[in-house]
């Protein structure tokens, strides 16, 4: 569905990605793990056209994305929920969700999507009038994901959704990601929390200083000695 083929990305002299290839297929959660500065965010930004790809190709459902503008890529159904839960803190939960649907003029679709998101995250329904900034960290992350889902994506890219959350909220996010997959939306999950992401993913790639060094199923990665030492603290 999403295919990254041998991409290279540089920021001036810094080579952020070198010959990175990865795939996300239907019904998959694919984890991308790696340390700070490995190039995880750059990979996601490349997919949605926020950084310029020097060479290689990125296709989604067979369409080339590398020369497309970000708004066009979003219209193709690719949605990035960036790191840092950038919700609108003075807007209510409902207004935040509305912002996620701004590309769509279809009111009926909005109501349908909103109901779907409230089904998925009942706490957001309970708090729909509450200001985003007053939600807990985990709830804000749900809202950020919910806002992304309002655009009716065909694939969701999540950047560090568990960052800064308590263990309990990390668990909430993990369950959320699984729910999204069950709704039929594949997920490319970028995480430093390898334990969480390898636990829920179907397949994973390990990125080290801009290159994919190993890949396999979540189970294989959890049993891989190097991964255990470097990313799981075992
Ligand atoms: P983290 O987990 O810390 O967010 P990451 O794996 O997402 O890290 P990236 O943010 O993709 O890593 O960064 C990859 C490399 O590119 C790093 O060396 C980083 O310093 C560099 N880099 C990222 N953005 C820029 C930029 N705008 N200008 C210059 N260098 C950048």
TrEMBL record:
Any one GO biological process: L-amino acid transport
A GO term for molecular function: ATP hydrolysis activity
Record Pfam families: ABC_tran
Transport as UniProt keyword: yes
InterPro entries from the UniProt entry: ABC_transporter-like_ATP-bd, ABC_transporter-like_CS, BCAA_Transport_ATP-bd_LivF, P-loop_NTPase
Domain of life the protein comes from: Bacteria
SUPFAM superfamilies the record matches: P-loop containing nucleoside triphosphate hydrolases
Boundaries of every ABC transporter domain copy: 2-234
Keywords, in A-Z order: Amino-acid transport, Transport
Similarity comment: family membership: Belongs to the ABC transporter superfamily.
Protein name per its UniProtKB record: ABC transporter domain-containing protein
